[in-house]
Each structure stands twice: as structure tokens, then as C-alpha cells.
Amino acid sequence: MKNIALVIGASGIAGSNLAETLIKKGWETYGLSRNPTDNLAGLKPLAADLLDIETLHAALTNLKPTHVFITTWMRNDTEAENIRVNGLMVRNILQALSPKQSVQHVALVTGLKHYLGPFEAYAKEGFLPETPLREEHPRLDLENFYYAQEDEVYAAAARDGFTWSIHRPHTVIGKAVGNAMNMGTTLAVYASICKETNRPFIWPGSSAQWNGLSDVTDSKVLAEHLIWASTTDLARNQAYNVVNGDVFRWSRLWYRIADYFGVQAIGFDSKIQPLELEMQNDASVWEEIAQKYNLQEKALSRLSTPWHTDLDLGRPIEVMTSMNKSRKMGFNLFQDTEDTFYALFDQLREAKLIP
After folding, report:
1. Is residue 238 included in any domain, yes or no?
2. Mean pLDDT for each consecutive 10-residue tract of the chain (355 residues)?
3. 114 is a domain residue
4. What's this model's pTM, rounded to 2 decimal places?
5. Domain range for residue 301?
6. Structural domain includes residue 226
7. Does residue 146 carry a catalytic annotation?
8. Which end of the chain is less congested by CB atoms within 10 angstroms, N or C?
9. Is 113 noted as a catalytic residue in this protein?
10. What is the total count of domains within the chain?
11. Contacts with 8 (C-beta within 8 Å, 6 or more apart), sequence order
12. Are 211 and 254 in contact (CB under 8 A)?
């Protein structure tokens, strides 16, 4: 049977890179988002609001996907609202597809907030897990919209008989515009501003993150992991961590990134210096840079998410994840993290998103 993929959130970091990989592998690939674009050859865009079941039914009228990849979420003011809205989005898409009885597998992308807690209690004392993070770590006794999304997948799988997989990446690094969690591009934009204004490239995070071990997830690795779990019998009906497979220290990488952009790096200096404060007045600066270099995106908020970068880099513990479960089941893809960042920066320059 031909594989027909429906990628929910096809314009984001995870979704866009997944769609590109699926198309290269010969999958018939549809991308659903509220405001779809046609900038990926071979992707068949669908427009729908995941909170509006009627628009979902209309968008999916003639589609019978075999595999559904849910890579999107919506940020709200409270975790209670995150749970309501993000759980509803997953429920709606799976309810809309249920009568078709075509879905064989559903893959859901969440993340390390599964272990570290929601935004309101993220990596706080009293809730810090043992590292490396492992999939068998129990859910925290906290409200968490990732748990709500998982539960919607489990309920629909029991109802409709499809298999499932849960994927928990750590800080996805890849090219996307308008993404709510975009550390790689945020750092590239910050470094570009520092270069243009002769400002130092100041480490914004904690001592623990500066000195400790960490890892991240290349968007291409995540794409391959999603496809692997959805097409490998042994891998189905499991939750997985997914990272590059190496570890690094920001105390080295920060200087390497600074060298790439030709800026002066300043490391941890006794206290956290939030990037959100450092960049709070840079919207007009970026407009001038974009105008000077004829860049494609003049709105700083469409490229930079310093609040999320601060969340990651300000954690009071080193954070790294175990890939043992995936390795034992046969997923052995490895990616050098420094190369991940350099490849992203090259892509951003080629796309005229940074100078």
C-alpha cells in the first residue's frame, strides 16, 4: 500500500524538515496548517484551523492518510489553557480522520518538558529529574499539556486501532520562520546583531548550562526518527527520546559560534543575563539590518524567540538525554552538533534570512 503522510504543522521546524524528508523518500505528502505555504516542491498544502472541526472536515474531505505526524502546538497564557487548547487540537484532527479508517500510525512530537515540567514550573527545584533523561521516568505530578496530547493519541489509538509513537526531542535545531521555539535561528540573529552593532556576544544562561553537558536534536535526525518509528514494527507503540547522539558543553560551543560570526564572545559571568532583556530593543535594529542587506524577513519576532532560548539556557542543571532505547531497537543515526549549527547558519545565509 502506498504511504500517504499528513504532516500537522508543516511550516514549523519539525514539520517542514519532516515533509521535505518524506517527499525525498517518495511519500505522497500533505501539509496541514492554518496558513500553508507552497515553498516546498512536492508538498500538497491543506488549510485548516485545528480548533475548528468543520474546517478540518472540509480540508480532509478527499484525503485518506496512512500516517499522521503531529508536530505543532499553540502557546497560551497558562498551563491549564495549554492543556485545553493543545489537547483539543490533537483530539480534533484524530476525530476528523476517524471515519476514514485509513490511519495506520500516528506519531506525536513533544519534548523534554515531559521530564522537566511545563513553562510555569520549568526545571524548578523539587521537580528536577535524574539525568541522562530516560523514557521510563514517570510523569511529574504537575499539569502538562504534553501529557494531555499523549492521552488524546492513546485514546484515539484504542478507538481506531492504529499504532503510535511519541518523540521527545531536546531543542530542535533547523530552519523555519515564525516558529515559537527556535534557538538556532535566535542565536544566529543575535550574533548578527552583535556583529553589526559591535556588541559582545554575551552568554545569557546559567552556570550549570555553561559548564554542564548538553545535547540537541537536528531537525533532520528528528525527521528520520519519526519515519523509522512509524514504519518499523518493533518500534511502534513506544515513547522515545531523540537527540543527535553526541554531547557538548556550551562553554566550548559558545566561542565556536562567536568565531563563525566574527564576534567577541563573553561567557558566564557570575549571573544569568537573559537574552530577552538583551534583545528587547532590537526590533528596529533588525529592520535596519534587513534593509541594508536586503534580507527576506524584516520582523525580528518572526525569527527570534529569546524567551525560549532563555528557558533552555537558564536551567539550573545540565540536561542530556539517553538514546539507548532507540539504539537497541535499531535507530543508529548520528549527527555532530557543531555541524548542525554551522549547517543551519549556512542555510539561513543562503536563504537571505541573516547577513
Report:
1. no
2. 93 94 97 85 94 94 97 93 97 97 98 90 74 94 95 98 98 88 95 98 97 97 98 97 98 98 97 97 98 97 94 92 97 97 97 97
3. yes
4. 0.95
5. 179-215+247-317+336-351
6. no
7. yes
8. N
9. yes
10. 2
11. 15, 32, 33, 50, 68, 69, 70, 71, 72, 93
12. no
